[in-house]
Amino acid sequence: MLDSSWLWIVFTLIAAAAQTARNATQRELTATLGTVGATHVRFLFGFPFSAIFLLIVMLATGAALPVPTLSYWPWLALGAFGQIAATALMLAAMNDRSFVVIYAYIKTEPVPVALFGLVFLGDKLTPAMAVAIAVATVGVVLMGLKPGTKTDVRATLLGIAAGAMFGLSAVSYRGAILNLELPNYVVAATFTLAVGLAVQAGALTIYLWLRDPGVLGAIVRAWRPSLFAGFLGALASQFWFLAFAVAAVASVRTLALVEVLFAQGVSRFVFKQATTPRELLGIVLIVIGVVLLIWTQ
Question: By C-alpha distance, which of 227, 255, 225, 226 is closest to 239?
Answer without folding.
Answer: 255
